[in-house]
Amino acid sequence: MAKVDLIMPKMGESIMEATILRWLKKPGDPVALDETVLEIATDKVDSEVPSPVAGTMGEILFPENAVVPVGKAIAVILTGAGEAPAPNGNGQPAATTAPPKEAARPAEAVASVSPPAHTPAPPPTRTGAGGSRFYSPLVRTIAQKEQISTDELDAIPGSGAQGRVTKFDVLQYLENRTAAPAPSPATPAPSPEPAASRSVSGNVEIIEMDRMRRLIADHMVMSKQTSPHVTSFVEIDVTPIVQWREKIKKSFETKYGEKITFTPVFIEAVVKAILDFPLINISVDGATIIRKKDINIGMAAALPSGNLIVPVIRQADQYNLAGLTRMVNDLARRARENKLKPEEIQDGTFTLTNVGTFGNVMGTPIINQPQV
């Protein structure tokens, strides 16, 4: 029986790692081609990982909540002729018997029949200068840019899975950083205080953020640090647009099979403005300005959980109003159903959001600058 490694997939150019949320198969379970084996999450989207082959689930190399680099083997799927090993009492495939001597194969082939080890491998660790603590590529890049020493990095309490230091932890450390000397390497890093043991007074409730809300907070802090926000307001009378929509919405739906909202109308206006003023379609990278030639419009979509996600309409200038309406409705629907693909929330160059639904007169949202 041959072994096929199940690899942590690459979910986008800027994604270097993903968190295993849930294994849907256990060792010994049959697996069909393209059947979902596990659910993973990145800092952009949750996704499902299908099996590249049909066979039997073998060894699971990383447990749930482990953070795994892309390209790393996360499980083994057994394929080939013969009976699949039945799971034993521990849920692992039972040992199989070696073939008779007259049909014996080379040692390497016989070894491939042996069942996988019972104990999943621990999550990977990467070292700094002699340390064994895991740091994501983004955290190490920020540390290098801000000249944070290895000793300082080791002393930062981690709020991520298994005590991992996140981007937010580093940014918070930089905000509170003083001129005091770096902590001694011999001094153990303080453990983050559990929410249940925090000292509070009065009639309060402590609510732990879910993963998406923490990531939104991380991105907002990073956006503020990268490009400080300035707001300017111009009052526009959109009464003609409201009257026009009321007049054509029934005929529009009859003709195109889509309900028209104000969002595609405003996206079309934004696209025309970018074509007239291309320097508003930019991002900032250090001391350089990066002008985007593609017009990829992000549209903030509210989720049932109360969080937000920003699906992207690529090449929005190539669509007419009917096409934009189809894209807006489709992306909004699949966002609510958690069915967006990773590439559908990447590479936005300009983001549109709507705070008017809350009865606001105006708002100053923090938009996370897309990575380039």
What would you say this structure looks like, in words?
By secondary structure, the chain is α+β, with helices and mostly antiparallel strands. The chain is 26% helix and 17% strand. The strands form 5 sheets. It has a 4-stranded antiparallel beta sheet with strand order 1-8-6-3, with no helix packed on it. Strands 5-4-2-7 form a 4-stranded antiparallel beta sheet, with no helix packed on it.
Briefly say what this structure is.
The protein is α+β, with helices and mostly antiparallel strands and 372 residues long. It contains eight helices and 15 strands.
Residues in helix, %: 25-40%
Low-confidence stretches: 82-131, 178-197
Major sheet characteristics: 4 strands, antiparallel
Overall pLDDT, averaged?
76
Secondary structure tally: strands: 15
- The assigned structural class equals alpha+beta
Q: How many helical elements?
A: 8
The ordered string of helix (H) and strand (E) elements is EEEEEEEEHHHHHHHEEEEEEHE
Terminus-to-terminus distance? 44 Å
Q: Order of strands across the biggest sheet?
A: 1-8-6-3
How much of the sequence lies in strands comes to 15-25%
Shape: globular
Rg, nearest Å: 26 Å
Which features would summarize this protein structure in a list?
single chain; alpha+beta; 4-stranded antiparallel beta sheet; 26% helix
SSE layout and pairing:
Layout: E1 2-7, E2 17-23, E3 30-31, E4 36-41, E5 46-50, E6 55-60, E7 67-69, E8 73-79, H1 107-111, H2 137-145, H3 150-155, H4 167-176, H5 211-226, H6 239-256, H7 262-276, E9 282-285, E10 288-291, E11 297-299, E12 301-302, E13 308-309, E14 312-313, H8 321-336, E15 350-352
Parallel strand pairs: 11-15
Antiparallel strand pairs: 1-8, 2-4, 2-7, 3-6, 4-5, 6-8, 9-10, 11-14, 12-13
Helix pairs in contact: 7-8
